[in-house]
Specification:
about 100 residues; mainly alpha; 5 helices; rod-shaped
Length: about 100
């Protein structure tokens, strides 16, 4: 609920902020002065900064925890073992015996 006291305190706060900005030589929009005077910008900026900091810390922690799992090695593809078996069968003694029988016949 906005009371006359709140409005007066905001006006006094805005005058202080305006004088600070004018002394600093900043050319900022009047609305920013007003929102800063009532504390809306400061509170939102602080909350956003805290959220972003928390998000950054949580993201860094998640990456640090998941690093060992990302560096893992694989045992191979599922079809490599059957293909190796077929390759050994075709180049091993059975293939040699079949080729000799085929040449003799």
């Amino acid at each position: 609920m906005v009371t006359r006291f709140n409005i007066l305190s905001h006006e006094v706060g805005m005058k202080k902020i305006l004088s600070v900005f004018r002394r600093a030589g900043d050319a900022v929009n009047h609305k920013i002065y007003h929102y800063a005077a009532i504390g809306a910008v400061d509170e939102r900026v602080v909350k956003l900064g805290r959220r972003m900091a928390l998000l950054g810390v949580l993201g860094a922690a998640a990456m640090a925890v998941s690093e060992p799992s990302m560096a893992g090695t694989t045992t191979g593809l599922p079809w490599e073992s059957p293909m190796d078996t077929i390759k050994q069968s075709l180049t091993g003694p059975i293939a040699l015996a079949i080729s000799i029988i085929a040449l003799a016949a």
